[in-house]
Amino acid sequence: MTFKLDDVSEWTLGVHCVPTALCAISGRRPTEIAQLLSNIEKQFGADLPADPGRSFNIRYWLPTIEHLGGGWTQSEDFSDKKYHDRETPSEFINRIHSDDIFLVFGENEEGDMTHVFALSGNELVDTCTEGKRSLVRLMISPNAMTSSG
Fold first, then answer.
1. Residue pLDDT, tens place only, 89-141
2. Cα 107 to chain center, whole Å?
């Protein structure tokens, strides 16, 4: 499958970040992605509901990318840096100039909250864009990436 960044079909308020990002690159609907994620969780022994409004652990959504026919490569890892020395999402977005698809994953300083959004070229799709492609230059503000999900 060739991934491309697009608006999320049937996105509704409450769809979390992982289903939003995976839908944005795959063209699938949130309910389809949630079911796929739930099926993959079951393969690892977790029996959780297929609900696009809940969180999904990265150890389950990375295999989902492969199940969708894609592959992934970790392009950068800032985990060895102190939190205050890491790039902000805005800094990362402004530095990356590529039409490749990126799933940008981050966590808060405590490491107990994570977030992911899809990025390609000068557009991103996130929960804060309500599943719609948005020009990056319109998103860069101090609170642009603080959406829950």
1. 778 888 887 889 999 988 888 878 889 999 998 899 999 999 999 987 644 44
2. 12
**Domain boundaries in the chain?**
17-139
Does pLDDT of 77 surpass 60?
Answer: yes
Report the largest interatomic distance among the alpha carbons of the chain, rounded to a whole angstrom: 42
From 102, 119, 15, 13, select the one nearest 65 (Cα to Cα): 102
Which phi and psi (to 5°) does residue 129 adopt?
-100, 10
The percentage of residues in the chain with a pLDDT greater than 90, rounded to a whole number, is: 53
Kindly report the pTM of this predicted structure: 0.86
Residues making up the chain, counted from first to last = 149
Q: Measured between alpha carbons, how far apart are the two ends of the chain, in Å?
A: 26
